[in-house]
Each structure stands twice: as C-alpha cells, then as structure tokens.
Amino acid sequence: MTRSAKLSGVVLLSSLALLHGARVSSADEVTAYHVAPLKGVTLAVGAKRAVGYYTNTGNACHLTLTVADPFGDADKAASEPVRINLTVGEGTSARVDALEGALAFACAQGASTMVIQPVQQVAYNALAK
Predict the structure, then answer these.
(1) Of 21, 53, 60, 98, which has the maximum CB count within 10 A?
(2) What ranges do the domains of the chain cover?
C-alpha cells in the first residue's frame, strides 16, 4: 500500500468522526460514547487510535473499526492499520483488545444506538501486595 493511499484512508476515516451523531467526551471523564448508526467516532486505545462506525440491519449492530498508530510522527515507522468487522446482536456486547487498552461495544435494543466504553487494562501483580 502506498503512502498516499494510507494517508487518504486516514483522512477519510478521520473525517467520519466530524459528522454529527457521535457524542464524545474528554479523556479525563470515565464515560461511554453513544453513537448513532452511520455516524463516525474516533477513540484513543492506549497508544493506538480507533476510527469506526456501525450500521443497524437485522436487529444487530454491524461495526467497522480501523485501529492504527496515530498520524503525525514522520520519523517513526507506522504499523499497518487493522480493520475489524464485528457483528454485535441487539442487547449484547463485545470487546476489542489492543496492547494498551480495550473497547467494549454494546448494541442497544433495536440496534438504535451503540454504546462504546473505553476499558483500561491493568495487569495483576501478585507480588505487589
């Protein structure tokens, strides 16, 4: 994949987050994001960035999520973006893990809203007690 194709993909997916319908809070708040169908959202997952949207067909939330390194550090070699397609049934939830965090996705009844909750992962250390 050429550099211009990668840049075009990042710009396109990032522009989805500017659309009306995604309610996003500051990183200091521990809250959930409530997203309407076909409305983009951009999230931080540890050192990675996730951009996505969902469609509601067949009483399920069909999530498309792209996880990649943040854009902007020209000296650092970026890893390839990863695209995740996930179907979450209405009234159920799913989770996507990254190296330094996770995202929990819950599909509301009738697939009218998807609730996204960032999850901080903390490793358990039995010796710390």
Answers:
(1) 53
(2) 3-128
